[in-house]
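Bumping with the actual sequence this time:
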Amino acid sequence: MNPDVVKFGQTRCPGKDLTWGPSVLALIAVVAVSWPVRAYPQGGRRQAVDPDAVAAIETAEADLAERLSGEESAAKGREDAIRKEAAAAITAVRDEAERRMAADRNEWQAEMLRLHKALDEAAARAEERERSRPPTVGAALPGLSFYGYVQADYQMTQSSEDQLDSAGQPLNQDRFLIRRARLGALFERTYGEGRIEVDGNTVNGPTFRLLGAEASAKLPGPGEGAAPLLKATIGSFRVPFGQEVPQDDRDRLFMERSTAAQAFFPGQYDLGARLGGSWHFLRYVVAVMNGQPIGDSTFPELDPNHQKDVLGRLGVEQSAGQWDVAGGFSGLRGTGFHAGQAATQPTVQWVDSSETGVFTPGALTGIPGAAATPSSTFSRIGFGADLAFTLRWAPALTTSLAGELYLADNLDRGIFPADPNGVLGRDLRELGYYVYLIQAYGRWRLGARYDYYNPDQDANKNGAKGLPVPTDASYSTLAVVAACVAPWGRLLVEFDRNRNHLGLNLAGMPADLANDAVVVRGEVSF
């Protein structure tokens, strides 16, 4: 359609659309009707125009022009309003886009700052670890390194006496001693590893012994310094149960492990085979061991029965920002040994009840002989759960909170050795736990730990001849320690508030045996 052709009642102006309203059309019709028609006479002479008609036409033209001007002004106003609305919309869209771009830029800058801060903190931690590492002793053979440390103590205990016990050992414990003097060699290759460690101490007199000796084959983890994906070991190594037992003595702030750990795994080392590794945040280990740790009270690092103890742990280790989290579950299934008795001959015993040294009738008592009794075995089980949190407030300021729970049957081999086939004739249910809080600031450490151990939870339910005799065999300790740490050693002072039921009161009832202790330790490592 020709754009210059419009419908009736419309006219087109360049750049504008104008519409004749009904009033304009009516005006035109009125003018057309009222226009005087004059007849021209013959000869073609035109009559004079009526002045009123001319005035009416001029008036109509002026009115039409005025109306057209008004319509044009209104159209222009609408056009200006549309332009203003479009400009306002464009401005609003531009402002919103700029606001979003600014928000994205700020978020990106904040993320970059966070990443830079995390990198700085990681570099600070790596630098702190490097500064805190003890001096290294190298060797000409690649992969071979040596390490060692000495822990020398002075201790004072409340129960010390200038007397001897029934075995002829001194009861005085206010003394200097070498708690640990370790020397080890480590040989590392990409797919193999070997370690040997010896220990000397004067806890029960001068002692020098082989402690750890292991050979391993391993599948390296991704990246330098990563834990191996799989590692198989055979030899003598720390028992892989829980968090506290396999921990290196140099990494523990407190002087000794908790009472339950010392009862279940005395000495921490045992002979066996181990398979473990890591995958991302998972940590796993399973072991088959003799079941007689080096500190066992009966057969240390021997095995009087052919059954083996099977144990293991499944745990996680994860870092998230300023937090480090570690935890896991441990289990053990094993077999204990009850030693039989050799046959005895009948004997005669003289009892000097009058204490006169003179033989009197009735002073002789016959003791019949006894037949030999065979040795026997019994089952033992253990369960553990551990959890630890570390919060890094700043590179030099950290807080650590951790705890561990032990539940076991017939597992005690160090403090109150369990033997259900012995005099008690029943299983012993054992319970132990600890919780500690450590605050570190630069070289300074301050920690507190509470641990509890009950070697016989049924002691108050079983008495002689079935009569209940209320007893409590539990131990508890509140330890507070302060330390100054250097890359080459530590100076520690610890106070132990010990509670037990090994004493007697004036009425002959079980009571607490005062046994609080203070220990000062100097440690040097390389």
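The tokens above came from a reply further down the thread. Confidence is low (pLDDT under 50) at residues 1-27, 29-45.
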